[in-house]
Amino acid sequence: MTTVAAGRAGGVSTTMVTRAAERRDVGAVGGLLVELFTQAALGRPDLFRLPQADDPGERAALARYVTERLDAAAEKLIVAEAAGVVLGFVHVLVEQVPDGPSPPYRRAVMEGWILHIAVGAQHRRRGVGRALDAAARAWARTQGASALGLQAWSYNREALGFFVRLGYEVRSARLFGAC
Question: Of 19, 59, 70, 132, which has the maximum CB count within 10 A?
Answer without folding.
Answer: 132
